[in-house]
Amino acid sequence: MAVGMDIGAFASDWAYCDRLSSYIAKMVSHNRTDSLLYSNLLSSALNELLETAHRAHGASGKFVCSILRHGNKDRVELVIPNDLAGSDFYRTAVSRLSQENLAETYRTALFQEGSIDPTIGLMELAVDYNARLTIEPMDDGAVRLTADLTLEN
Length: 153
Known about the structure:
The chain is an alpha+beta fold. The chain is built from six helices and five strands; from the N terminus they run βαααββαααββ.
């Protein structure tokens, strides 16, 4: 399943993150063993990815979200229009996820004073969902953020 829209339209309303994640999760969970649990887990994970894209994106271009399934593994791919600074943000954020003390870094970020760490959603996916995240530059300056998840056994 793939959903695409102009990044300006997506970024115009924070509520789109929740609405899109809920809608997509319900659409792809119908044939899972526990479709309600799966839908809730996928919606939460997808919402974190969408909120990250909402915070860090380029000024124009097409934003695309794809969900792919192979057995009990799910892959979420986001194509996020970006500029050089945005692409650097994603490369740095994904590289931070491989640090040994990521769970502690995540807990510290959760309770810190001041502005939220913009990578907190990606840290949550890696720590709480054991997600494997990768980033790939696209020819048009966009990035492809991929999250591999196992939400049911």
